Amino acid sequence: MSEIAKISVGGNTYELPVVKGSENEKAIDISKLRAQTGYITIDTGFKNTGSTTSAITFLDGEKGILRYRGYPIEQLAEDAEFLEVAYLLIYGNLPNEVEYESFKHNITQHTLIHEDMRVFLEAYPTKAHPMGILSASLSTISTFYPESQDPNRPKDAIDLTIHRLLAKVPTLAAWAFKNAVGQPVVYPKNKYNYCENFVNMMFSLPAFDYVPDPIIVKALNTLLILHADHEQNCSASTVRVVGSSQANLYASVSAGVSALWGPLHGGANQAVIEMLESIKNDGGNLDKWIAKAKDKNDSFRLMGFGHRVYKNFDPRAKIIKKAADDVLEQMGVVDPVLDIAKQLEEVALNDEYFKSRGLYPNVDFYSGIIYRALDIPTEMFTVMFALGRLPGWIAQWKEMVEDNQPIGRPRQIYTGENARDFVSLEKR
Q1: Fold topology of 72-407
Q2: Where do you find CATH 2.20.28 in the chain?
Q3: N or C: which end of the chain has fewer CB within 10 A?
Q4: Which stretches of 10-105 are assigned E, i.e. beta strand?
Q5: 123-173 pLDDT, tens per residue?
Q6: 4-50 carries CATH number 2.20.28
Q7: Which pLDDT tens digit goes with each residue over 375-408?
Q8: Is 314 marked active-site?
């Protein structure tokens, strides 16, 4: 017999079905609650509310488990290329050799941006945040491909949009960076793989020949995989809600970029470095700031420690810690800010206060360290996050469309004024 839940309200008892996932996760299906009872539920921030069923990513915060389509994140980060993971997330399985070569070829053919986009780029102030440029650029790109706005186009046309998006976002991201530093844009080179091409567009200049550093390329590949998807987070949910209106993929992902921009989401790795710089500028007295973090009456909070979902440890942090150590060692980076980061890491991993509260260094802490070591400007950190999260957003949008999910439309409980009559201006 299927499990049911019962709710008693208004003197009546109602039975609600229980939904069970493939990893034995359970949910009470309240989709007919309002129709049956006249009541809705309140769950501010949706902390206890499942908005959808999904076959893309499994996350167990208590056990520190993260899997893409069943594959442990540890294995993918160690052995896979980022585009393999992108294919896995979007299409459901790892590609065979023929599928992978075709996928890479299709993406490579679409890395160029329409030259008219240069006009938009040149109009942005040099101090414009790269995330603002990326979000606006993604919406703008949709105007160059009006066919993408047709929600009923065939599968091959949808695949073309997906390939274009995967191909062009690195170019847009690199161009946003070049705009921020006042350098000429660098066009993509199809002789490079996905990560090599992005690194080349970021760091090469017309004045000298640049060869992508394999250390940087390897670190970037790992980082992008670790960020590729993370279940129903703020930005993924945003992509789904916007897409549920039948908004095109470019617009939906643009909305995801905007959601990721916030310091409580993707902007956390930027906040980590800004915090470390504040500690350095204050004299580097780490004991003082540790004491502030422990003081419940102090508003200061350590950025990059603990996680809203992972209660014991972030499985991505273990992987990226090794990548951070390798980068710092192999590149011989000398940076007082990163020295403070290493000291803070040691305290957090050994101090009982932090250990007992699960305040371990998370993926944002280590990714911030790596980006800093690679000489990537702080304001570009969230853009790097967006580049990694792109296949996850696409997969979430594609799944939502294929499942014919209804338009997102949360309910509310109104707490405003009761009915009142309008009073003309002269009588107020």
Answers
A1: Citrate Synthase; domain 1 (1.10.580)
A2: 4-50
A3: N
A4: 12-20, 26-28, 57-60, 65-68, 71-72
A5: 888 888 999 999 999 999 999 999 999 999 999 999 999 999 999 999 999
A6: yes
A7: 888 889 899 999 999 999 999 999 999 999 999 9
A8: no
